[in-house]
Design brief:
This protein has eight helices and two strands. The chain has helices spanning 2-15, 20-29, 35-76, 79-97, 104-135, 157-163, 165-187, 201-236; strands at residues 193-194, 197-198. The chain is 77% helix and 2% strand. A two-stranded antiparallel sheet has the order 1-2.
Length: 237
């Protein structure tokens, strides 16, 4: 029906009102199209295309997610980071196992962590801002016109937090952990610690195991993802 109306309208424009009947008669004599079949066929093609696109997008999302995980593990498994993870594992296990007579050491450590972490992040932000600004200047100190000048958004606090969220958190956690561990060791019963190391094997045994197992598991995960990525690259060729 829609084809008939369209052809009739075109006929009106081309031949004028005086020949409308003739145009309509010729239109009705022309072969009829099964518009339902056309629509159904187009719908099936569109659905197939959407399905293929969804599968392709799903594959791309999966590959992108794998790359992000691999990148995160790669940045978290450098030697300095693994040492910090080992220390954090030791801290968490020891603090969870030893008896605590009071929570005051942890409250005091929280205040210290906030104050020191705030100062450390101010200094880190200053370095971040200076680095961004220096990247836009050439070696002689003049502005490099091939790069855009750093805008307020590039050197803003929000941008610093976005790019360095884990470092920001770490600058708060390190002083908190050091302070709370020292205070908890000092407030424990006599004979529980020698310096900062617990005497009882029920405390230092699991802590030592965790400080080795957690970094090792991160390193193994990184190597496994690298092998999987290498195999996919070979199969893709």
């Amino acid at each position: 029906m829609s084809c008939v109306v369209m052809v009739a309208a075109i006929g009106d424009e081309e031949v004028g009102n005086g020949r409308r009947d003739e145009v309509e008669r010729k239109t009705h004599m022309s072969p009829q199209f099964d518009t339902g079949s056309i629509v159904d066929h187009g719908t099936s093609i569109a659905a197939t295309s959407l399905g293929e696109g969804a599968r392709e997008n799903g594959g791309n999302d999966h590959a992108s997610s794998s790359r992000r995980i691999s990148s995160l593990l790669a940045s978290s498994t450098s030697v300095p980071k693994l040492i910090m993870v080992s220390y954090a594992s030791w801290y968490a296990v020891v603090m969870a196992l030893i008896p605590h007579a009071t929570t005051k050491p942890f409250l005091d450590a929280l205040v210290i962590g906030v104050l020191i972490g705030f100062v450390l992040n101010i200094n880190a932000y200053s370095s971040f801002k200076a680095n961004v600004e220096s990247m836009t200047a050439s070696g002689d100190g003049s502005v490099n016109t091939s790069r855009s000048n750093p805008s307020q958004s590039q050197t803003s606090v929000g941008r610093y937090l976005q790019l360095n969220c884990m470092s920001v958190l770490r600058l708060f956690l390190i002083p908190y952990m050091v302070s709370s561990y020292s205070a908890a060791a000092g407030a424990s019963k006599e004979g529980t610690f020698v310096s900062i190391f617990p005497v009882d094997a029920r405390y230092w045994g699991p802590a030592l195991a965790a400080s080795v197992a957690v970094p090792a598991s991160l390193l193994i995960s990184r190597k496994s993802l690298e092998l999987i990525a290498a195999k996919r690259e070979v199969n893709g060729r």
